[in-house]
Write a structure and sequence with these properties.
This protein is an alpha+beta fold. The chain contains eleven helices and 23 strands. The protein folds into three domains: 86 residues, Roll (Nuclear Transport Factor 2, Chain: A); 142 residues, Nuclear Transport Factor 2, Chain: A (Roll), CATH 3.10.450.350; 114 residues, Distorted Sandwich (Glucose Permease (Domain IIA)). The N terminus is likely disordered. Bound molecules: zinc ion. This is Murein DD-endopeptidase MepM and murein hydrolase activator NlpD, contain LysM domain.
Length: 471
């Protein structure tokens, strides 16, 4: 069907620029497709509690947490937040403890060091192993106290005769625990601080990669992923990003006092890619479903994803007549070829029914998907099919259906991809992809009440920023 032996076209300089954040883009591309989105997102939330996580975790586990810190220190996104954390913990001591003079021998603070356990920490303030035992066994929750974090501070309140009266420790900006002596034993309390949520604005111009520019604009890793995800149906972040592309975001900032302790959702965004501007507005409908729409209420989600293979090079485009590399005859090429290493996953372009998963002459191992009554996609030369994908079954958009190979009439590993509308082959690259349902008519007015002020705010923020830059 196709060839990959042709010399690859020289990439324009911008391509190289766009390719420079490959590691970042790799993880990014994973998020463009819904089926993997949740999984990857969770990982990030667990790595960094500061990053807009609604969930507040229990007392950090020493072992797990040291791993977390390792990962965090590798991530340029986490460094600043991590160090700010420590500072903050020192500044804001619990009022009742801070109110008493530091010299008061009944108040003692221990910072957890490497290898410390609750026993070693307790012994540093003269408390016995028996006390540790009593504390841990006082309640189920109190057991969590034994999981310590390096750098965590434990503030002890001791009685005249050196017995434990109370203990307080801040676990994060959002969570602290308190233990108080009672007649019956110890009372364990966990306090969660609810941060204030404010809307924040960020703007950036891309000159190397989205990730670098987003970071410079002050966006967290998670927000950057969200941004890429929102526009993932319109912009191919692996191939389409150019120097000078621009983005604007209004997002939720979670603050305690003056300090940002996390971020929430992107409320609206604008992305200008190669001169074309895309808008996005987050909207929760009356049923509680959350989705992003463009400023006019059209769904961001498309019935088809743009490219069934990530990080592939287009080695041959759709044409009505070209010389076939093997047959050496002028032949139409009714699809697009994506060259990628053998074994690269291939994704279903949309939800659909598998009408073929098997061999098909010169196409080799082929999958044909039927999407509704109008659309059909075909994937040829596959090395093999993904588990569970078989004729008669169904697949979800973004689901891996098979792997790049060179079966059938093919000169190298690539995917031959065809797109049919009502039985006619069309160029998938020029095809205007059909969109999912727009905002329901009865919700349109309510949606516009959300959308208009957000768009106006971005206009205003940008104007202010440009005015400031001019000075
Ligand atoms: Zn082909």
């Amino acid at each position: 069907m196709t060839s990959t032996t042709k010399a690859p076209p020289l990439y324009p300089k911008t391509h190289i620029i766009a390719a420079s954040g490959v590691a970042a883009l790799l993880s990014l591309a994973l998020l463009v497709f819904p089926s993997r989105e949740v999984e990857a997102k969770k990982t990030f939330l667990n790595l960094d509690m500061d990053n807009g996580s609604e969930q507040v975790q229990g007392l950090p586990n020493t072992a797990a947490d040291s791993t977390d810190q390792q990962v965090e220190s590798d991530s340029p996104f986490a460094q600043i937040e991590g160090s700010a954390d420590t500072q903050n913990a020192q500044q804001s001591a619990e009022p009742e403890v801070a109110a008493t003079p530091v010299e008061d021998p009944r108040n003692k603070t221990v910072t957890v060091g490497n290898g410390d356990t609750l026993s070693t920490v307790f012994s540093k303030v003269g408390l016995s192993a028996n006390t540790v035992h009593d504390v841990i066994n006082s309640s189920k929750e109190a057991k969590q106290l034994s999981r310590l974090n390096v750098g965590q501070e434990l503030q002890f309140r001791l009685s005249e005769d050196g017995q434990l009266e109370g203990l307080h420790s801040k676990l994060s900006d959002l969570e602290s625990v308190t233990l108080s002596k009672t007649d019956k034993g110890y009372d364990f309390k966990r306090e969660l601080v609810k941060p204030d949520v404010r809307d924040a604005y960020a703007h950036g111009v891309i000159n190397s990669s989205l990730f670098v520019s987003a970071k410079r604009a002050g966006l967290s890793h998670n927000l950057t992923m969200d941004l890429a995800n929102i526009f993932g149906y319109d912009i191919d972040f692996a191939m389409d990003i150019r120097e000078g592309d621009e983005f604007e975001v209004i997002y939720q900032d979670k603050v305690i006092g003056d300090k940002t302790v996390g971020t929430g959702n992107i409320l609206s965004a604008r992305f200008t890619n190669r001169g074309k501007t895309f808008t996005a507005v987050r909207y929760t409908d009356k049923q509680g479903n959350v989705s992003y729409y463009d400023a006019d209420g059209n769904s961001m989600r498309k019935a088809f994803i743009r490219t069934p293979v990530d990080f592939a090079r287009i080695s041959s485009r759709f044409s009505n007549g070209r010389k076939h590399p093997i047959l050496n005859k002028i032949r139409a090429h009714k699809g697009v070829d994506y060259a990628a290493p053998r074994g690269t996953p291939i994704k279903a372009a949309g939800d659909g029914k598998v009408i073929l998963a098997g061999r098909k002459g010169g196409y080799g191992n082929t999958i044909v998907l039927q999407h509704g009554s109008r659309y059909r996609t075909l994937y040829a030369h596959m090395q093999g099919f993904a588990k569970g994908v078989r004729t008669g079954g169904s697949v979800k958009q973004g689901q891996i259906i098979g792997y790049i190979g060179t079966t059938g009439l093919s000169t190298g590993p690539h995917l031959h991809y065809e797109f049919q509308v009502n039985g006619t082959h069309v160029d998938p690259l020029s095809q205007k992809l059909p969109m999912s349902d727009p905002i329901a008519r009865q919700e349109k007015q309510r949606f516009m009440q959300v959308s208009k002020p957000l768009m106006a705010r971005m206009d205003q923020e940008k104007a202010t920023m440009l005015a400031l830059n001019k000075r």
